[in-house]
Amino acid sequence: MPQGIPHFLDIEFYQNDDLFFPTAMTWSLDDGRMKTVVIEPDESWLPIDAELAEEELRYLREQGVPLIELARALHEDLPDQQVYTDGLDPDETLVDLIFDAVGMPVPFEIAPLDDLMPGIDRDTLEDHRRNLMFEQGLEPQLPENGVYALLLLARQEGLIGESEQGPDDW
């Protein structure tokens, strides 16, 4: 079992027939706090003839963090860490897109949640996660809510001790 509070990551993304790229990301830190960013898309992800609403693109360009800043923050926050995801989205592919665009190596390893909690099957974990989101009134499309739910699940499963800071301390 990992020492300390496990690290979690959730990425929201845009996808249609022409496009596939990350739009927002949340990850947890050593102390259980979270960081959330909107992601400025790389121009290589946006073919000229691709269909994307101009207002959505403007929002991502104006509010989004440049990829190099995001990559640096992830290198600072998650070096040599095991980072867990809910396994529902193509998170590993999306992380690779980010780091390939800036020519940097990914500083962490991604693993599915069932690697962290091997005694519970994937479907049961997903049911618990969904129930926590419902009980907490969390919108599932927001990455910060996905990470928060995973932190709550880790606490519920005894992976975050009562003496450690975590979701209840925010």
Q: Can you tell me about this structure?
A:
Helices cover 39% and strands 18% of the residues. The protein has 170 residues and is α/β, with parallel strands linked by helices. It has a 5-stranded mixed β-sheet with strand order 3-2-1-4-5, with helices on both faces. Helix 3 (91-102) links the parallel strand 4 (82-85) and strand 5 (109-112). The two termini are 24 Å apart. The relative contact order is 0.20.
Straight-line distance between termini = 24 Å
Strand order, largest beta sheet: 3-2-1-4-5
Helix/strand/pairing class, anyone? alpha/beta
Radius of gyration: 16 Å
Classify the helix fraction into a percent range.
25-40%
SS summary, helix count: 6
Main beta-sheet annotation: 5 strands, mixed
Write down the secondary-structure element order. EEEHHEHEHHH
Shape: globular
Low-confidence stretches: none
